[in-house]
Amino acid sequence: MLERQSPVKKEVGDVLLELRDLKKYFPIEKGFLRTVTGHVKAVDGVSFTIHEGETFGLVGESGSGKTTLGRCIVRAISPTSGEIYFRLPDGEEVDIATLPKRELRQVRKHFHMIFQDPYSSLDPRMSVLDIIAEPIRNNKLLSANRDIQDRVRELMSVVGLDIQHLNRYPHAFSGGQRQRIGIARSLAPNPRLIVCDEAVSALDVSIQAQILNLLEDLQAEFNLTFLFIAHDLSVVEHISDRVGVMYVGKLVELADTDSLFADPKHPYTEALLSAVPTTDPEIKMDRIILPGEVANPADPPSGCYFHPRCRYAQDICKTETPKWSEVKPDHFAACHFANELELRGVEDAP
To answer: Domain residues for 97?
Structure first.
């Protein structure tokens, strides 16, 4: 378990990525004719910005839409609607959501994704050299084989891998080493934004800490910007500057890390924080157990999606969708009673 500490405040630049009302609906098809009878609202109207040089954490239970959102940002899947504005090195802003494939290929080198499972995200038939070199060749960044090999060796050294293992295959490496290979592959085209999709959740705790420290070192060295998707809040607290909380495809709270962990404004965030472990043996965990199951994104409840599980819910929560509002400076939430409730943060745990 990671020891809780406040992230170091970093100097962040201008907005690098901006999402505006992003939606991704998957059709539900039935019958021989594959008739569309409904939609799974995996991402349902999400908006936020990420600044250059910062780490934006995105948390929520399984099925909340975090991974789908990350895949939409890198256009691994196309969003249903909405805008994803990305600022290029020359200052031009492009909408990734609507870029034609030919133009998308030209800008894709500026953002990359690190996947959750280091065992399945690497091609077992390719050597480490070929895996790391693939984005270099695909983006035509270097042409001479000697230059490509030199670049791969440099990247392996940067992520802490032995360059003598250049011609080995993924099965010869441990989970942590495989994730380092994935990180080196992501760094190969010199991206500005890296989406980390549960990048450490499949690793042992000690290896998690090593990978997180590596990511922080790389961010400082190459001025990287991270979207860090995770379900482990202790990991998110360790690495993130700001945190967004998702529930059934919607963003329900957003704030800087210290503010969100100490003073949550949404009951769902309070419940998540109650499960964050502590290294202090004198503190007894007092978890908030939410009743029922996560709402069905194909048939969500009326009003606030969280109201069937919320212990503070009132009649208005069942009928009216709460507005996204700024509860206090730079702290946003979607709750009818965000200004009235006194919710328990991590520091308030008994």
So the answer is: 15-240
